Amino acid sequence: MKQILGTAALTASLLAGTAIAAADSLTLYCSADEAWCQLMARGFEEETGIKVDMTRKSSGETFAQVKAEAANPKGDVWWGGTGDPHLQAAEENLTAEYLSPMRDELNDWAIRQAESAGNRTIGIYSGALGFGYNKDLLEKAGLPAPACWKDLTKPEYKGQVQMANPNSSGTAYTTLATMVQLFGEEDGFQFMKDLHKNINQYTKSGSAPIKAAGLGENMIGIVFMHDAVAQAASGFPIVTVAPCEGTGYEIGSMSIIADARNPESAQTFYDWALTADVQSRAKDVNSFQVPSNTAAVQSPMAPDLSEIKLIDYDFKKYGSSDERKRLLQKWDEEVSNLPQ
Amino acid sequence: MRQVQHQSAFHPTVILWMMVGLSGFVLLPWYMLDDGLFSFSWVSDGYPFDSDVAPALFLVLQGQKMWLAPLGGLLVLPLALWGRRKNDPVFGNVLIAVGLSGLVWFFAQGYGISLRGWNAAFLTDMFGKLPERQFGMGWGAGLVGSAFLFLLTLGIAARGAVGGDVFVVSSIGLIVGLVTLFILLPILKMLGSALITEDGGYSLSSFAGKFLSLRIWGLGCITGGSRCGVAWNSLFLAVIVGIVTTLLGLVFALIATRTNARFQKLLRALTVLPVITPPFVIGLAIILLFGLSGVFTQGWAWLFDIQPTRWVYGLPGLLIAQTLAFTPIAFLVLIGVVEGVSPSMEEAAQTLRANRWQTFWTVSLPLMRPGLANAFLLGFIESMADFGNPLVLGGNFDVLSTEIFFAIVGAQYDQAQAAVLAIVLLVFTLSAFYAQRFWLGKKSYTTVAGKGDAGVHPPLPRGFTLSIGSVAAFWLMLTVLVYVTILYASFVKLWGVDFSLTFGHYIQAFSVGWNEFGLHWNGSAWDSFFTTLWIALVSALPTAIIGLLTAYLLVRQRFAGKGAFEFGTMLSFAIPGTVIGVSYVIAFNVPPIEITGTAIILIVSFIFRNMPVGVRAGVASMSQLDKSLDESSLTLGANSFQTFIRIILPLLRPAILAALVYSFVRAMTAISAVIFLVSARYDLSTSYIIGRVENNEYGIAIAYATALVFVMLAVIGCMQMIVGRRNIGRRGQAGSANQIQVPGGG
Asked: Is the fold of B217-489 the same as that of B512-723?
């Protein structure tokens, strides 16, 4: 018995010695659109030879997964998804500090995002909130085109507006937080109550309202403007509106997971993902967010952030889980229960 | 009955399982490897010393994971039985002791020690902090665990259970073990996780708060608020769908058996459609027809000069879609019942001068009562479990199955909330299931006996025939319209914008090209298509085997606890897919069983979701085989394993094929469970289609779904050709092997 074991062990160790060293690999958690995730994973593989194992999950799910795996991290980089969960992960030290050499090429807002999180995350794209409408349906119903947030509360749009449920969608929570910051808490909630009368459905997913509008199943959808642009780019009769009062925005972020198994591959990916060339590819997969690299080429269809009145969105305050819970509860009690 | 024949000094089956267990302990890597179960790169990754790939023995010898050592000791313990005979009580007792303590220790260490050392705070308090940790179990652990299980069953058999039949006891042990591990355990873990609070502790009051919340049980829609709780919504919808599908099913069953209507054949053909239609495709077609921009809504608005509305979103749309999808199931149940009402009863009524209407109303209908209740409960369960239609058509009408999904995937990511909702859903479906089995099961309305009768049912009242005929014709038209819409939409360039016809969607999904390596599958759908195909194929065989083995035990064997055994094996039928999905995510993403994100979790979920189909097929056709066949085989000296393999299985060939095909088809159309379990590497057709729907790419989604329908039609057609119609008796048997009730994709 001993002999057999010995022989087996010897053979095995010989085999191990002759085996080629395994190629570098990277486990990527991706919280953006599937096509964009694939583009990033395959592009990185082709250009660096590093094998990418990509998992796509929503940012809420990914945050929960990173937290659950904290004792035994399996992921290396978390790319994409709205900034709040990235900030939360930074706050709980689930992600690692890293100063990329690419930082000089980035927009101010991306750096601000990094600094507010002790450089544990960084902005990779941003998108402003707004709404879009189906111009065919609007014309058929003989209604004027809405231009401001307040327009959406007018009685003629009753049953024509859709937004997501802030409990289940980050987009809708951003909407709620934007109204509170734009109009003040009391007036912000009054706006939500007035809007409630015109809402035909609170969808579960953030971009669903504008997709329904694209298909002619809804007239006006409150979404991130890049989602509305994507519908127009697919050929649907959607017009994107930057509200006249000003609006909030999200910063899609990227973080390296603390104690990652492949920290070098993770940093390589991090730097690579911030290059102008890579960020310019987003438009190929119908993603019209504003890239954080100033030199990145944007699609001519994408909303121009410099022409949009952006509020000074307080990510720290409205991203914290206490404030979030308070606002959502208030919305549940004061808005969602009202009769329409 | 039979004699123990081995004369050797040591029972060969004991040696077999000891060898299996020891090879798991000594040769194979104990833990799950990153590359999955079917990769053998571990052989060159520092095996057998590197602690990631080492077998248990090497770990223990290197002073690591010392808690595995007792397992090895227990595995060699049966050697003490050397020279003892099987009927020696010590033989059985030792094996029972070894198997039982092995299993207990095996799971205790697995659940007790996890990624962060001790898994529970009280263990840390008791033994101090554990510096080591362990990952999910792999090949080695699997073999050792099964060795203990079968040593235990060997011992039980040796003590004389079920006539000392090793094969039967082992089969029972295997199935109980599998059902416990892959159905009961996940459900229990899910129940446990419903108690978890946000900061990770356990609390009954937080559970009660969630469970009793107004979002689930609110009655706002009655008391003047805006809407009712999801539980009431689901219940209300399911009751209406149950009633409507039962009535429609009865109408079609009557037409198919009691009239000469020409579309009888068409009716039967249509029943196969919902089985092979990917979920939510019907919902999409209904949006295209009745949505705000739908043909009918717009036409209606134009005709009466009113504003078109979104009337279809919510209850109305769900009702239409689910009625379309589940009526054929009611039909399949009721056709057997309607045929089973003996004409002699009706003849007797007519002889006593009842007219046609009285005969139908007072004789035929009451005899169909259990069938009607059965059909209602099936429709109820299907509607409760339905996930695809509420996803696309629900509007503001929230139901449990979709709420569960969004509690897990949305920004809120609240496992405890999902578990609470799943419990509510489970309570509803299990009550219906329980009612079906124990309330209906005991009543006998059998009227077809051996006595001869004319075999011809009296015709129905004329006015009645006319009215059910027109209902059926209307429904047929709607069904055909829906399927034509689906086919048409798969060729339309961009629905609502550009109605020109194109093959573009099919090309985008299924194009094939050539490159330097030969054939290249360019289309975007091929990846998920092939994954679905092989996973469905791989899971079909175990589904059929486990199903038939269970059926064999149920029909042919008697043992203590058979009732509970039967309930356990049919249980997964009543567990909605979303519940299975959530509980698998909760139970199998942490050691000791860590299979989320792999193909294994998909295969396992298919096997245990579809097992009842295999069981039903087996029970139905095995009841038709006379028991004297087994007995003669046993008398001639074969053991029960040989009898099962050589006598029963060959006679069950049609049932086997049917079970194989149906589990294959159901695996291809399943969505509710797998949507939680798919990963980037193992994406399935249905979840790929959902993704396209979410991206507004209806064309490609519908084209893909249409292609799937044709693939499955071809598969079912092939089966029909191979199996053919098998008639053993003279009477055409209702509910024979060719007519297994198959609940829809769910």
From this structure: yes
